[in-house]
Design goal:
The chain is α/β, with parallel strands linked by helices. It folds into 2 domains: 166 residues, VC0802-like, CATH 3.30.2130.30; 211 residues, Rossmann fold, CATH 3.40.50. 40% of the residues lie in helices and 21% in strands. Strands 1, 2, 3, 4, 5, 6, 7, 8 and 9 form a 9-stranded mixed β-sheet that branches. α3 packs across α4. The structure holds adenosine-5'-triphosphate and magnesium ion. The site of magnesium ion (MG) has 4 residues, from loops.
Length: 393
């Protein structure tokens, strides 16, 4: 079946008045972005509190739907067949032909729902629904009417052309990216942080990212893996500005000066400080991490408190109450899992102590950091100055 148009449905809760335009315009922008590389020519526009995509010429249906399913803010994607308005008898034939082609197995219940945007049409919407319903019933003996809980609702919209749709493909939900500001994701090569970025983007937040690498202890391929993950997150969130920070000298200095069982916590505190620097520079409103309570020693309540101690911005930890398997399930759904499990070393694992503290005391950690006084400011400054920025689209 050839669909000429997609009708996009979005949740309308909380988007009244001025917010509605912001929401719709962001949605149109994100839909255009999602389709920019898809084969075909698409015109995306809003009309009467709905968003439509007209597909001109040839296009790849599966690819188009696949892309639309990644757009946050859409709750339903309806492929529409458009018929020229050549009178009601012709429309009956067209709708029967539509049903015939759309549903191979004709054993289900249905109802017809009509909207008449063109008020000059000779029948009102009740009559349109009733008469088309009758035509369908007469043509297919296995199909029955159920107005309360139909398996299929056949929607008819009378405009300059007649729009017919009955399939609603579930959308990604959430809010269009760009309606809720921006945040800075601490993106490692692991399973968790890409999922965390996805979850915050789903609420309409644009994503920037920062990755700490430690050459030569971590390889170019480990960095490439993070770039690949940022690309996968970008398919949902839109463009991601990725900051790659050379963390080696800071790590070595901490290793040299501080108790080894505190290395991870102190390192994480410097990551947060540096991430916050770039976040402020780019007007981000918060930080995002992939932490989850108790997952590892650096994510006990005490460790999280010690890490959080250096942050002045809100830190969003959307996975905080998730079990590992629940995180893996999302990672698989958004196709980051296979990339995340590639076995490249990560900068934390190399400098990790055999027996890290599991209940760090923030005061003790602060005092340990005083041992870094001599050089740490200069090292952080160098790390900031030598950042590599990669624009991911
Ligand atoms: P992930 O699977 O996201 O790597 P993890 O279970 O390995 O998480 P940690 O290594 O303790 O957990 O890291 C906790 C969080 O700190 C990560 O989710 C990420 O947000 C951030 N993080 C850790 N290492 C890095 C890094 N090298 N660069 C950027 N962020 C990092
Ligand atoms: Mg990790």
């Amino acid at each position: 079946m050839r669909f000429h148009t997609f009708l996009l449905k979005y949740g309308e809760i909380g988007i009244k008045g001025k917010n509605r335009y912001i929401f719709e315009d962001a949605l149109v922008r994100q839909v255009r972005y999602a389709l920019r590389e898809a084969e075909g020519e698409f015109s995306v526009y809003k009309k009467q509190a709905r968003i439509y995509i007209d597909c001109e010429g040839e296009y790849d249906y599966e690819e188009t739907v696949g892309q639309l399913k990644k757009v946050f803010g859409l709750v339903g994607i309806c492929p529409v067949v458009r018929f020229e308005d050549k009178g009601f008898d012709k429309l009956k034939k067209d709708v029967v032909a539509y049903m015939d082609e759309m549903y191979e197995d004709k054993q289900f219940t249905f109802k017809v729902e009509s909207r008449r945007a063109k008020k000059t049409y000779p029948k009102n919407s009740m009559e349109i629904s009733r008469d088309l319903g009758e035509a369908i019933l007469e043509s297919f003996p296995g199909i029955r009417v159920d107005v309360h809980h139909p398996d299929v609702t056949v929607n008819i919209e009378i405009r300059d052309e007649v729009y017919v749709y009955s399939r609603i493909i579930p959308g990604a939900g959430g809010m269009p990216v760009g309606t809720n500001g921006k945040a800075m994701l601490l993106l490692s090569g692991g399973i968790d942080s890409p999922v965390a970025g996805y979850m915050i983007a789903k609420r309409g937040v644009g994503i920037e990212a920062v990755y700490f690498h430690a050459p030569p202890y971590t390889s170019e391929r480990a960095k490439q893996k993070v770039v690949d993950l940022a690309q996968k997150v970008a398919r949902y969130s839109g463009p991601v500005k990725l900051h790659v920070v050379n963390f080696t000298d800071i790590q070595l200095y901490i290793y040299d000066k501080c108790p080894h069982d505190e290395l991870t916590i102190i390192m994480r505190r410097y990551m947060m400080r540096i991430a916050e620097h770039f976040a402020k520079e780019d007007a981000c409103l918060g930080l995002i991490t992939g932490e989850s309570i108790g997952q590892v020693a650096s994510q006990t309540m005490q460790s999280l408190a010690a890490t959080n101690d250096v942050c002045t911005m809100p830190v969003y930890r959307p996975l905080i109450g998730f079990d590992k398997q629940e995180i893996v399930d999302v990672a698989e759904k958004i196709d980051t899992y296979e990339t995340s499990i590639q076995p490249f070393e990560d900068c934390c694992t190399i400098f990790v102590a055999k027996h890290p503290v599991t209940k760090p005391n923030t005061e003790v950690i602060r005092r340990s950091e005083e041992r870094l006084a001599e050089k740490i400011d200069a090292l952080v400054k160098t790390a900031l100055d030598t950042v590599e920025v990669i624009e991911i689209r």
